[in-house]
Specification:
mainly alpha, about 100 residues
């Protein structure tokens, strides 16, 4: 028989890691190109856990969370920049005279 050693957080009987699927799906509203990997990794968590790949399930869980956070932060940053630019453009156009011929 061989001695089987498991990683610290990947022992059989341990609860499955969070899959962050809802978080990944919601992040698609902010920045969909970065949310797609989040959804892919989130959908892999339960499958890998069921197959006994505990380390892979934990890794996919961490990547799903990371990509979801990236998508949400990037989406918020782009939205704030767009709002600021719209305000600046509207403010600069407000004072210019309109000529009607």
């Amino acid at each position: 028989m061989t001695d089987v050693s498991y990683p610290q957080w990947g022992t059989p009987g341990e609860a499955a890691p969070k899959n962050y699927l809802v978080f990944a799906i919601l992040s698609i509203l902010c920045c969909w190109p970065f949310a797609i990997p989040a959804i892919i990794f989130a959908s892999q968590v339960n499958t890998k856990y069921a197959q006994g790949d505990y380390a892979g399930a934990q890794n996919s869980s961490q990547k799903a969370k990371m990509w979801s956070i990236i998508a949400i932060v990037l989406g918020l940053v782009v939205t704030v920049i767009a709002v600021i630019l719209n305000i600046v453009i509207a403010a600069s156009d407000y004072g210019s005279p309109t000529y009607v011929s």
